[in-house]
């Protein structure tokens, strides 16, 4: 894990000053054009609207939760590049830009019970999105605060003359694209009888990191940072391209990638009466087999609809 320490006040000033700027340009920012032509299509693409869906047209539906493991080769376009480039960036950097710079994305806290129903939006109390306290709260979702003792020229701790306490300096251990190991998505699978198709629509997406012990640095488990409402994300995802290993001239956007389902994932939960995930009653290979059984059941349901 690469750790980057940035003073909080510096991040506050930087993020406020970049609000009106776009995330990453699709052309080189130097004095020369770093490609054979000026690329314009991705920056002006519009989001493909969902087909109209009425409640009476939904003959059957099932909500499932999936995990996109960024260690899988097929999901590498979501993970790389580790550092933003002039023409593309990792999904995490796009999300961070949409929240902190463009302010076009709303993040939702998990709450005490790890809620994923978008009930706790992070918004400024006074309506001012540039309020320093609100900006500091936003930044807390993209890093961890760490304190260090202030040392003098002899590398000895310095003390506050009034309180006698050791002086501490606070830094933000910023999460980078290297720290994001997976994304969790929740989506609805439904049969639209008006179009006679089994369709899927992603409702939310959540980045996941390793949770480490602040004292020892040992990995303690996994941690969801927050949830994003995916239909809102589509407008910023559509204007940033994903690497195409077959043809640099035929790149697609992040929204295209999710729309075309060009990612690898596995089911971790389906809607059930006890609202429990698969790993609460299955382990190891049994959990993967259970996920495949759910996937197969949805596939069979799609074909059985023609017999109704």
How would you describe this protein?
With 308 residues, the protein is α+β, with helices and mostly antiparallel strands. It is 22% helix and 26% strand. It contains seven helices and twelve strands. The chain has helices spanning 8-17, 76-79, 91-100, 132-140, 230-237, 254-259, 284-304, and strands at 4-7, 58-69, 107-108, 143-149, 168-174, 180-192, 197-212, 219-224, 227-229, 241-242, 252-253, 266-270. A hairpin with a 6-residue loop joins β7 and β8. α1 packs across α4 (132-140). It is globular. Mean pLDDT is 83; it is low at 1-21.
Fraction of residues in β-strands: 25-35%
Supply the helix-strand structural class: alpha+beta
| Main pleated-sheet profile | 7 strands, antiparallel
Q: How many helices?
A: 7
Mind sketching the topology for me?
Elements: E1 4-7, H1 8-17, E2 58-69, H2 76-79, H3 91-100, E3 107-108, H4 132-140, E4 143-149, E5 168-174, E6 180-192, E7 197-212, E8 219-224, E9 227-229, H5 230-237, E10 241-242, E11 252-253, H6 254-259, E12 266-270, H7 284-304
Antiparallel strand pairs: 1-5, 2-6, 2-12, 3-9, 4-5, 6-7, 7-8, 7-9, 10-11
Helix pairs in contact: 1-4
Task: For the structure shown, list the relevant keywords.
disordered N terminus, 7 helices, seven-stranded antiparallel β-sheet, alpha+beta, 12 strands, three-stranded antiparallel β-sheet, 26% strand
């Amino acid at each position: 894990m690469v750790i980057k320490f940035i003073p909080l006040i510096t991040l506050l000033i930087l993020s406020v000053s970049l609000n009106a700027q776009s995330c990453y340009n699709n052309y080189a920012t130097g004095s020369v054009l770093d490609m054979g032509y000026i690329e314009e299509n991705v920056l002006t693409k519009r989001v493909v609207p969902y087909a109209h869906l009425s409640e009476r047209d939904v003959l059957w539906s099932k909500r499932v939760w999936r995990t996109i493991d960024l260690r899988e080769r097929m999901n590498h376009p979501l993970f790389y590049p580790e550092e933003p480039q002039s023409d593309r960036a990792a999904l995490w950097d796009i999300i961070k830009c949409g929240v902190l710079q463009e302010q076009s994305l709303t993040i939702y806290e998990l709450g005490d019970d790890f809620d994923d129903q978008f009930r706790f939006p992070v918004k400024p109390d006074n309506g001012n999105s540039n309020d320093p306290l609100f900006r500091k709260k936003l930044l807390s979702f993209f890093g961890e605060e760490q304190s260090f003792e202030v040392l003098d020229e002899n590398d000895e701790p310095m003390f506050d003359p009034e309180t006698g306490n050791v002086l501490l300096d606070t830094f933000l251990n910023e999460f980078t694209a290297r720290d994001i190991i997976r994304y969790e998505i929740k989506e609805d699978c439904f049969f639209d009888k008006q179009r006679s198709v089994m369709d899927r629509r992603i409702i939310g997406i959540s980045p996941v990191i390793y949770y480490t012990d602040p004292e020892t640095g040992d990995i303690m488990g996994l941690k969801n940072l927050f949830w994003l409402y995916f239909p809102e994300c589509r407008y910023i995802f559509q204007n940033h391209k994903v690497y195409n290993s077959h043809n640099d001239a035929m790149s697609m956007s992040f929204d295209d990638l999710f729309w075309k389902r060009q990612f690898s994932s596995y089911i971790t939960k389906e809607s059930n009466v006890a609202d429990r995930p698969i790993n609460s009653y299955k382990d190891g290979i049994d959990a993967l087999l259970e996920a495949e059984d759910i996937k197969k059941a949805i596939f069979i349901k799609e074909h059985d609809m023609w017999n109704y």
